[in-house]
Amino acid sequence: MFIARQPIFNAQLEVFGYELLFRLNSQSTQFGGVSSQGATAMVITGLFESGLENLIEDKIAFINFDEIFIHSEAVELIKPDRMIVEMLENIEVSVNLIERLVDIKNMGYSIALDDFAQTYQSYPLTPLADIIKYDIMVTPLDTIANDVPAGLAQGKTLLAEKVETQDEFIKAKEMGFSLFQGYFFSKPRIAGRSFQATPSQIQYLQLMTEINADEPSFDRLADLIEQDVTLTYRLLRLASFRAGSESICSIKFALSYIGLREFERWISILMIHEVSKDKPTELIKLSLIRTRFAESLAKRAGMIEQEHDAALMGLFSVLDAILDQPMDMVLAEITLPESIFDALVKKQGILFPIHQLILAYEKGDWSLVETIARALKIEDYFIYHDYRESIKWANNVIGNIA
Q1: DSSP tag of 318
Q2: Interatomic CA distance for residues 17 and 282, integer angstroms
Q3: Residue 69 DSSP symbol
């Protein structure tokens, strides 16, 4: 079973909830090869087994339903304050469906209409909807200019889906949309901005350069770390945690205890955190999820020598959006293995399939996920398992560095 999540933001770019995307197996359609009711039990069971909170944290889940799925009693296993019932666009409207939706609303659930492309005033499910989702690639914003005021006048929450650019986000917000879904938040806004590194950012870049030198110097690394009392404290705390009862008496000893590769990952995470302070929290979270996910996938694919590079590739995969600069310019400032540059800039090389699989999984492109997974000889089960664990790990890291 595959389960992925896509963030849904409010106008302040805070995460309101996550839409959960499903695929049961390689032969299934969106809800499985047998029936929607059968798929419902598997999906809900999977969510409970893995822990719904591990996927959506303290947010609300948007879950797709069709006219069969909606009649399953499994719907009620997830509380109304944790789930929004999202009706698929091709649903067959009937009296029984309308009655069921009325019952669901009376239980406290909110209802969203997915990929709405109907005539707003005459569609029979419109009065029952709390949220109207417009796929702005299918129904561009200019084509729904009349429907938007009607929805707002009736107290509907409007959600713009497939938002891919900051300009689309701004336009939708100005029209009255209050929820937004898409990967616009992970795209750079390059026009009119030049990167000005702060002293702490320069320090991180110097550390990264020294780590990746042909013969890294522990003395040089220690000198750079000592320039920042906060960085020194964090390093000693990390080393002490690893050492247990063993005494950590110096920065050089801490570095030797942790190891250069682990220190590089740690310093890279701190650098990403430092440079992303004016960006949505979800962006650094995406970076952290990707670093762990990429490392796990490389391991599953037998790419043992590339695990560390895969982790850095995942971590830096949104650095262009964080710095609002083209990726090739961003990576030119950091000394990194060529395989990372090849994957993120040239879209080729040994790490590119890992990067491609991660992006496909995030978007729910299950066909592409399966194709790449087969090529890498990774079992379906491990992909969802590693994705779920990557989310949990990212949340723990953010909690420790915030």
Answers
A1: T
A2: 11
A3: G
Separation between Cα atoms, residue 340 and residue 21, nearest integer Å: 29
Spell out the per-residue pLDDT of the chain, length 402, in tens.
788 999 999 999 999 999 988 876 544 444 444 344 555 566 666 676 667 888 898 999 998 888 888 887 778 878 899 999 999 888 889 999 999 999 999 999 999 999 998 888 889 999 999 999 999 999 999 999 988 999 999 999 999 999 999 999 999 999 999 999 999 999 888 755 555 667 777 788 788 888 877 788 888 888 888 888 878 887 887 787 766 666 677 788 888 878 888 888 888 888 888 888 888 999 999 999 999 999 999 999 999 999 999 999 999 999 999 888 899 988 887 778 899 999 999 999 999 999 999 999 999 999 999 999 999 999 988 999 999 999 999 998 888 776
In order of 151, 207, 214, 223, the CA distances from 335 in angstroms are 52, 10, 11, 19
Q: Quick one: CA torsion of 86, 7, 106, 94, rounded to 10 degrees?
A: -10
Neighbouring-strand partners of residue 159: 133, 179
Instruction: Give the DSSP per-residue string, 252-269.
Output: HHHHHHH-HHHHHHHHHH
Domains with residue ranges and CATH for the chain: 2-186 (3.20.20.450), 199-401 (1.10.3210.10)
Does the predicted model carry a pTM greater than 0.70? Answer: yes
DSSP 345: I
Sign of the torsion angle spanned by Cα atoms 106, 9, 399, 396? positive
Beta bridge partners, 6, equal 19
How far, in Å, are 244, 292, 308 from residue 175 at the CA level? 56, 38, 45
